[in-house]
Structures are given as C-alpha cells and as structure tokens.
Design brief:
The protein is α/β, with parallel strands linked by helices and 343 residues long. The protein has 14 helices and 13 strands. The chain has two domains: 232 residues, Type I PLP-dependent aspartate aminotransferase-like (Major domain) (Aspartate Aminotransferase, domain 2); 86 residues, Aspartate Aminotransferase, domain 1 (Alpha-Beta Complex), CATH 3.90.1150.
Amino acid sequence: MSAPLIDLRSDTVTRPTPAMLEAMFRASVGDDVYEEDPTVQALEHEAAARFGLEAGLFCPSGTMTNQIAIKAHTEPLSEVVCEQTSHIYLWEVGGIAFHSGASVALLAGDRGRLTAAQVEAAIRPVNVHYPTTSLISLENTHNRGGGSCYELSEIEAIAEVARRHQIPLHLDGARIFNALVATGQPATEYGRLFDTISVCLSKGLGAPVGSVLLGSKAFIQKTKRIRKVMGGGMRQAGYLAAAGLYALEHNVSRLADDHRRARQLAATLAAQPYVDFVMPADTNLVILRLRDEMPAEKFLAHLESQGIKASSFGPQMIRFVTHLDVDDAMVARLEAALTAIPA
C-alpha cells in the first residue's frame, strides 16, 4: 500500500473530519436569502461575538468577504491603503478596481506589516488631483510575509491614525486565528480596533468552504445587497455553516500543533545546503528561497516523486503550509525527503 499524499500547498486543501461531516448532516437549515437559516444565523452570531462585534455575514469565500467590505467602505475616485503584497491586491483578481472603482496606495511593509507612520504618510491631502483615502486594510497573519503577525501595539497605533482621520480600518483575517493562537492576543481587542474583519473558516480551521464578514449591524445590513449582486446569496447554506461552527468550537486551539510542525520544518530546511534562506516560521507558513544551483522545478519534482506537494511562490521561492491533515509522521517523511535531495 502506497504512503498517503502529503499536500502542503495550502491549508485550503483540508477536508472535513467525520465529526464535522456529522455536524453538517445534522444541521437545521432554511433559506438564508430570506434570513431563515438558523445555523447560518448561529455561525454569524458566534463569529461576531468572539470578536466583540455586532453582526456577521456568511459568504462562500474570503475573497468575497474582503471585496464586499471594500465595496461598502469605498466609492469610485477613492483609495485603499494596504501593503504591496496584500491578498486583497495581489490575489483577488484586481477586484478592488473591478468591483469598487477605487485606487490602491501600496506600501512596502516588514514581511507584510505596516507601521502607523507609513499609514499616516499615505493618507491623501484634500486636493482635486488626488483620490480620497477611504479605507485602510491590514492582513494578519500576512501570507507573503510567511505568516507574520502584528504586535497589538502597532495595530492600536494604526487604529488611532485611522480614527483621527475618520477612515475605516479593515482586517483581512484569513488566518486571524493563527495569529491569535501564536500571540495570545484576545480576539475582542480586534473587534475594538477594526471596523470590519474578514474571517476565513476553510483554511487552518478545516471547514470545506466559507468566510464570515464581521462589523456593526448597520454595516452588515448594507453588505447583504452587495453579497446578493456578487452572487453570494445562498439558500440552505446551514449545511456549510455547520462546518464553520464546528471549526470554531473544535479546531482553534489545535492550530498550535500546525505552528510547532512549521517551526520544525523550517529548522530542517535551514540546515539544507541547497536552501538560501528561510523566513521565520511564526505560524503555519514556511517560505524559503532555494539557491540558484537548485532549480525550483527540480526541487518540486523530487518532492512530488515522493508523494509530497508544495507551492512555487515566486522565482526560486517555495511555500509549505502545515494544517489539520498533516501529522507528525508526515512531517518526518517530508524531512527524510528533504535531506535526501542532493545539493
């Protein structure tokens, strides 16, 4: 019998556990567009309560929750301030321009993290030649930064800048629970500092699909129309929401195991002669650069021949992501494959 595939391309590849499937099967459902699905409502309430916010909106994806939030916060001829490698800019198909007709002010962060001084300097003065700064967006953890986390003090400083200038602050929290587990920060502090938060359920938390946009009751009511026009209105969505509820109840604290395995993998990679550098593994992402003598295609092909998948992440850059479906035995098998690659 062949060894099972080890898929480290992303934490989106996780599959529901038998217990999660059972919760989905038992879900009470209704028509969510009519606001009659009790399980969707329970998920939205639970997610909002965890962050100390008033309401939530269940959507099929994190791209949708981010783009809905941006659309609701902005208008044409306005501008979004974000880090230059942000998911909302790089990985959402130009959605800010397509959906919102807004410009983007791109800032170079430290592994994706901005400072309050950078943000304040990017806010446009009132001038007919400039777009109006209408939104500041942060990403925590930051994907391109190797799962880097913000210090709460820096977010507080950025939030103070945003409020002083009366600009909404949005969080792309696709992996926010990874950040909370890694840092010990309280989720309610994020609800205090951010106007809106996008929380993904289908990455490290292991749900098959879904994200929740969090904010005030008035804001979420406004976003329901935007979700509908984007095609995100779902009917008996409680079967999917039940997976999200299960994930919140059972799969948050275990993220620490993913982080431990990522640190172990990063240490092994750093010791290999064909590796140029490895980013700090603060959470569940391990990003490295291969030396030029080891072509990325050759490296990935060797791993695939061993039943292991990883992602190309730019020229000579590789990303591994630990998650619910990767155990200690799989990490050991990966380490053996890595040490067997000739320099």
